[in-house]
Write a structure and sequence with these properties.
Elements: H1 7-24, H2 27-34, E1 36-41, E2 44-45, E3 49-50, H3 61-77, E4 83-88, H4 94-99, E5 105-106, E6 120-122, E7 127-136, E8 151-155, H5 159-171, E9 176-180, H6 183-191, E10 197-201, H7 202-210, E11 218-220, E12 226-230, E13 233-235, H8 239-255, H9 257-266, E14 269-270, E15 275-276, H10 283-290
Parallel strand pairs: 1-4, 1-5, 8-9, 8-10
Antiparallel strand pairs: 2-3, 6-13, 7-10, 7-11, 7-12, 14-15
Length: about 300
């Protein structure tokens, strides 16, 4: 008997087939076929991934790492030329864009967690950060417990907000969360006085403070909620591309190139304001360089 299928069924089958076809295409094959690689980036995450003006390509520590990976991918794909494409991502959009193949490498400051490893893969960690708070120097907030009945700026889709909520529940501290769509928007809320504190990784807090006209008015609390490893994010279940990324990052760490990049972006003046973030290499990051790994927390 001949069965007729509705347009809805046909469309669903077509979409499923397209999805399966995409899943079967490795990232390297996709790069070879398209002649391009797409890097997920930020426009204001100094000094990891940011733009010095609206029309320029992003620059920063993670961008330099990913350009090295892109160079290796171009060679592996046998391409004489390869286009570097950038797509600005947010903490909420970055994982779906990696999963569906829109972004080949997410080169933004992102924590490698066990939970995220269920969805995506990570390179060996290149940085370790402490999640904590930035407050004003004249603020009565001297520790996380002092947030009682105060406003805290945070970013949707980050591990920082999850850690803060866990602390809130465990310690029975009541405070209000003020959300930014990305770290730069959250910092503006803090800077403008809409929030009494800003929760984020210490290095990103230091970066925002260093580039703020009011930099002398802020301080970072020495009370970490957790230490977190950063890694470049890529598609899960693509062992060939994962090996290429891993080998590239391992080589950068072992050769000393990674530490040289760290010194470039954290210990010297950087554009656009020619400020020095002056954030020395931490013991936890040194440990990552001594024993490179992609373990999540």
């Amino acid at each position: 008997m001949l069965k007729l299928f509705s347009k809805t069924t046909v469309c669903a089958v077509t979409l499923l087939a397209a999805s399966l076809a995409q899943a079967q295409t490795s990232t390297l094959e996709k790069i070879k076929q398209s002649g391009s690689i797409t890097i997920g980036a930020r426009d204001m995450s100094v000094p990891f991934s940011y733009k010095v003006n609206g029309n320029a390509d992003p620059i920063g520590l993670i961008n330099d790492i990913c350009l090295k990976v892109a160079e290796a991918a171009q060679k592996a794909a046998g391409l004489q030329k390869m286009e570097i494409k950038y797509l600005i991502t947010t903490p909420t959009s970055r994982i779906p864009l990696v999963q569906n193949g829109t972004v080949d490498l997410d080169c933004t400051p992102v924590t490698n967690t066990i939970a995220r490893q269920e969805q995506v893969a990570f390179s060996p960690s290149y940085f370790s950060a402490n999640v904590t708070l930035a407050v004003r120097k004249d603020s009565p907030v001297k520790g996380i417990a002092d947030l009682q009945n105060r406003n805290v700026a945070t970013v949707t889709g980050t591990t920082s907000i999850q850690l803060l909520r866990a602390y809130k529940k465990a310690q029975n501290v009541k405070f209000n969360e003020v959300y930014g769509k990305d770290p730069s928007e959250a910092f503006v809320m803090f800077e403008s006085g809409k929030a009494d504190a800003f929760v984020l990784d210490d290095v990103q807090l230091a970066s925002f403070i260093a580039t703020s006209p009011q930099r002398d008015q802020y301080v970072i609390l020495n009370e970490p909620l957790r230490t977190e490893p950063y890694g470049v994010m890529l598609r899960k279940d693509d062992p060939g591309f994962k090996k290429l990324v891993d080998d590239t990052v391992y080589a950068m760490i072992k050769s000393g190139e990674m530490e040289a990049l760290y010194q470039k972006w954290f210990m010297t003046t950087i554009p656009p304001r020619n400020v020095n973030i002056n954030f020395p290499l931490s013991d936890s990051t040194k440990a990552l360089y001594a024993n490179p790994n992609d373990k999540g927390i």
